[in-house]
Request: fold
Amino acid sequence: MTQKLVIIGAGMASGRVIEHLVEENAGAYDITLFNAEPRGNYNRIMLSPVLSGDKTYEEIVTHDDDWYDQHGVTCRFGEHVLRIDREMKVVEGQNGHVPYDKLIIATGSAPFIIPVEGNDLPGVITYRDLDDTNAMIDAAKQGGKAVVIGGGLLGLEAAAGLAERGMEVTVLHLMGHLMERQLDEAAAYLLRRDLEKRGITIMTQASTAAILGEDRVEGVMLEDNTGLEADLVVMAVGIRPETRLATDAGLEVARGIEVNAQMQTSDPDIYAVGECVEYDGHLFGLVAPLYDQAKVLAHALMDQPDAFVVKDIATKLKVTGCDLFSAGDFADGEGREDIVFRDPSRGVYKRLVIEDDRLVGAVMYGDTADGNWFFGLIKDGTEIDEMRETLIFGPAFQGGDQADPLSAVAALPRDAEICGCNGVCKGKIVDAIEGGATDLGAVKAQTKASASCGTCTGLVEQLLQVTLGDDFEAPTAQPICGCTDLTHEDVRRLIKSQELKSQAAVWQELGWKTPNGCHVCRPAVNFYLLADWPLEYQDDPQSRFVNERKHANIQKNGTFSVVPRMWGGITNPDELRAIADAADKYDVPTVKVTGGQRIDLLGVKGEDLPAIWADLNKAGLVSGHAYSKGLRTVKTCVGTDHCRFGTQDSTGLGIKLEQALWGSWTPHKVKLAVSGCPRNCAEATCKDVGIVCVDSGYQVGVGGAAGMDVKETERLVDVATEDEAIEWTVAFVQLYRENAKYLDRPYKWLAKVGLDWVKETLADAGERARLVAAFELSQSIYRKDPWAEHAKQAERFQPLADLTLEAAE
Amino acid sequence: MSWIDICALDDIPLRGARKLKTALGCVAVFRTSETEVFAAADRCPHKGGPLSEGIVHGQSVTCPLHNWVFDLNTGQAQGEDGQIATYKLRIEGDRVLIDGARLTARSAA
Reply:
């Protein structure tokens, strides 16, 4: 019978346990996962890049809802666990009991709050989870001053992130130098110098006496009576294992929950993993040992013998531009010798600590390329007597035959860690490569190496090179998909130069490896052909994503949503009545105003589409193309018609633009807006093309985005008349249609070709006219209502036959 | 076997699909080349996506919701742990026939 496994805490350790379980023995356990945070597992060590703006939360999610769903994990996120009842073997959550056969406590750790007055004021936060990170990002938007208490890994990452976001940051550190557990003074000095160059003030031997403020934090007072102003105080002085549930349940708890080498607590049916545990007197804060624990624990649950061993660990600081590496023990001591290398002009410092002819510690700053090799020597206890003279220069200098730069990677032992974020060792990567993962993407997909922060990408590529030898091809531009070796850009170029005017011609002449492409390349090729040969090429609905084939948006339950066009956002009572009637007639469950100022009828059955279109057509409404890689909407404000600030007829211009551009197909969706004055009520500055009306005319901006990325438009041109604004907009859209890669929004395409090139091209009046003419030519075919055309083939939307009736006879 | 005539070959678009209502739920009928047809369950095992709305390529179909790819010969999902039921079809002249023995079988309920 399937056993019930309950896990408390969805952190990196327990996430890894679940991965091992579902990978190696899916279905052995019926898993329920509690998490106090209202979300699943993400890569917590990547919060610093999120704080600094280098990554988004979405990029650090390791398991999304689909993943849990797919692997049958019952998620109780946002629910606190109140109690563990060992006698009844149930976990009491806020929303009810869950019985368990086996239980894992993975509650992690809680940040340590220093017991000073004012530590509970609003504006004093810890740095632990996404909510903390978001709170810091929000606080940084106001600018002002931040004080970070704690000059360890976490505190410095917080400080660098806040400084990156424009705050004036001071770091208070109790000890004499930064990161004293990982660095010696010399390395800490270089780190301090680098941080100070970023405008961060560092105060060491600074002891906090009180946090000041009335309703919210206003400052920090030090023991020596120095006062600092602060709008935000981040407390990053340390963490302690979160053991309350275990203590209450009567498990053995010291500093952390005590476990044996199988991660079992004093109750044989309860395990613990991660930062909340204590093993053999050790606590754990870095990710590598957590992952080791997770593997051991998963094996224990599957009755496979395994035991956790405490290993040396290496540390890196995730602050862009501060290259720092530390491993092993670097304290001075009797019988210990140092080898030190300094290059002050490059800011490079390396120190090796040797005891009994073996390397026991390494600290490096500025140049950490050989860090993993030194770390390997420390872990293996390699005798270094023979290479002592050249040891500090790294693996490349250890003997003539190793002068090849790849030898460093080749020399690494199998258990050398390559990817710190995901705890992937060399052996696993080499096995994957030998098993057929012959490029970076495949290695990433199979092993997760280089899938997080990416600093190990170079190492992984070297491993590919070392393992594959001559078979390794240095990474080139990505082909469209597995059907061809050509890139999007190549295919576009060849379609034009070889005058390929059908899909079959593309497959044949460009050597496609599949009979008729796949769901990735076919829509792209279909668009390229249509954009280049509007008169000759016959659009292929079967190469379009369902939304475009059916002219409606597919929703998660297989129903569709229907959005009629409302030119420039203008409608009238007749149109609204027709929409309301259609909603009644076709039992539309949800009627919603979209972000683009149109009305969305959600939940229409596929069979009903032709009929609802016909009804809407009768009222004069046509397809809003809300489903298309094409012009979506032109959002407007009321402009001079009604607004006391409006400078031009923004609604009128919006309507003209929509009527010029509608129906056109583009590499990705295209959204426009026209604002009547710089108050920007139509939000024109985050659109693909956004026009802001001013007294002197029209400011045309391009390349904005408000989706996965948020970007402000950049100014393309200022023009005096409406006609010019339309001409420039149409020419820009056509240039994008002729050049961009399928599925690149304008801002992505602009990043590749550069705004300057686009400005230069469009500034040429002849070229501008050519582009407008080419667009008009294409529109002579495509500016038409697809709903009217498809409603004529209503039978195609019906089932072929209904065999349920046959069966009932 | 009991063959049931369901449609003309041309009723199904080339590299496209239509659906068929049956006692076992909707079945998607695919046409991959001029004279090749397949039938399989219309429901993706991942999130229930309607496979008849997917892009048909080679002898495979891609689910429109999350891009799972199924081999229409075996029903096996590519690189994923999932499979869809497949049904026998045959072409007679320009008509498409499906093996009705399995499709019309109803559960005891």
Observations:
- The helical segments of chain B are 100-103.
- The first strand of chain B starts at residue 3 and ends at 8.
